[in-house]
Specification:
The protein is an alpha+beta fold and about 450 residues long. The protein has 10 helices and 27 strands. Helix 5 crosses helix 7 and helix 7 crosses helix 10.
Length: about 450
């Protein structure tokens, strides 16, 4: 890409030079109406009605209506008197996830909550899509972060939003920039989407390999028998079917030390797991939060040994499984399963991971889904001979490691693509590279 023939000093230290003929404008000078936000109250949500979006509805720079909440038409009519999003308007996150930007690209009515600010571009001065790209650029995002304040969460005020400045080329140049960025970012987004689809396929393959190995074994010629359990079907002839209570020493929950006692947390070096630590990896290597030895000594938390299987018993990650890589503690949302010595923890971590849907079905889903110790003990388990448990665990370690490595490489590619997309937008809208007007 080329540079513009002549540049001038922008007067802004971190922006440095901009093309001759380009200028600066504060947002308040290129919008046609005062910046507003959604209601500062919690509306009554209904099953179906007018879509009601908050800042979490901006994902990957786009407005997402899937799984959104709904309000009544009367509530929408009341709210839109203050804040009425229309096509080609810009929405900006101003609380918590500040700086999230998306253009309104739909014609139907919807309302927004107070964490979103609404900007209505003056189309005589600025193309809405150019404003969107500019607000997504590093230059604008840096301004947003500089203006933001941090109390319980990060915020940017309405007054500070209107005083954000953007670099403004002529309207024909804006249109050329939009055309180029639309083409380039569409190609990048398509690559990212293909990679994300591939990642999902690899995860499905990984899960299928695990499920087959822990329920059918590794010997394709093994004689099979009816397990007596409908969802398990046939299993190898030498395997037994038992409830978890008959293969475990104990099933206990963790605990949370009183948060007001800082001695339990400050400079702690003991891993203390919460459901938020559970990710794609089967083994937990380290926790995001730590506690001190005093918490263990005062019995407000307990230690579990390496090889303990952890099962999330409540919340959004209900049924998630992990294996403790080393001695650690955990909170009360997690059930800790300690097996009898003759059973291999890694095999059963894989097994429980493969029957997550069955485990969730044991929860009290009529209210808040909970799997307590007694329900955990009711989980149906397969019991292969010990040597087969070891062989299956080793086999799955090798197979899943290869798949995980491939997934990691693809995720790394996507991160680089996103970085390139961000750099491209930032360089083009600030005139670091030239866009031909054709």
């Amino acid at each position: 890409m080329k540079r513009y023939p002549a540049y001038k000093d922008s007067g802004v230290e971190w922006l440095k030079k901009i093309p001759e003929g380009w200028g600066f404008k504060k947002l308040k000078h290129i919008i046609r109406k005062k910046i507003t936000d959604g209601p500062h109250e919690s509306p009554e949500f209904i099953d179906d009605g007018v879509p009601f979006l908050s800042v979490d509805s901006i994902q990957d720079g786009k407005l997402i209506f899937e799984n959104c909440r709904f309000i009544s038409k009367d509530a929408h009519i009341r709210y839109k008197k203050k804040c009425h999003p229309e096509k080609d308007d810009i929405l900006m996150g101003k609380a918590a996830s500040i700086g999230k930007i998306a253009i309104v690209d739909v014609d139907f009515d919807f309302s927004v909550w107070s964490p979103l600010a609404l900007l209505k571009p003056n189309k005589n001065m600025v193309e809405p899509k150019f404003m969107e790209y500019t607000l997504k650029s590093d230059y604008s995002q840096d301004q947003i972060n500089i203006f933001s304040t941090l109390n319980t969460q990060q915020n940017i005020s309405m007054d500070d939003i209107k005083n954000l400045s953007i670099v403004l080329p002529s309207k024909p140049e804006q249109c050329s920039i939009i055309k180029l960025l639309n083409q380039k970012t569409t190609k990048i987004d398509e690559l990212i989407k293909k990679n994300e689809t591939l990642i999902e396929l690899l995860k499905e393959k990984r899960q299928a390999i695990i499920s087959h190995a822990v329920t059918k074994g590794l010997d394709q010629n093994a004689k099979m028998k009816d397990s007596g359990v409908e969802w398990l079907g046939k299993v190898p002839e030498g395997w037994e079917v038992r409830r978890l209570r008959y293969i475990s020493k104990s099933v206990k929950t963790g605990a949370t030390p009183p948060s007001e006692n800082l001695e339990y947390y400050d400079e702690g070096n003991i891993d203390w797991y919460t459901p938020g630590d559970f990710g794609e990896r089967l083994e937990l290597m380290s926790s995001s939060k730590k506690i001190t030895a005093l918490a263990i000594k005062n019995r407000v938390a307990r230690i579990f040994e390496k090889g303990t299987i952890l099962l999330v018993g409540i919340g959004a990650t209900l049924g998630k499984i992990a294996l403790m890589h080393k001695q650690a503690s955990l909170n009360q949302q997690i059930n800790a399963i300690v097996l009898e010595e003759r059973f291999i923890p890694k095999f059963y971590a894989y097994y429980l991971n493969s029957v997550k849907d069955i485990i969730i079905s044991l929860s009290n889903a009529a209210t808040l889904g909970i799997i307590n110790q007694e329900r955990t003990k009711q989980i149906i388990c397969l019991v292969p001979p010990k040597e087969e448990q070891i062989a299956i665990a080793n086999y799955l370690d090798q197979k899943t490691a290869r798949i995980d490595e491939t997934i990691q490489k693809i995720q790394s590619q996507n991160e680089k693509l996103k970085e390139y997309r961000q750099a491209l937008i930032s360089n083009v809208v600030t005139g670091k590279v030239r866009v031909d007007e054709n």
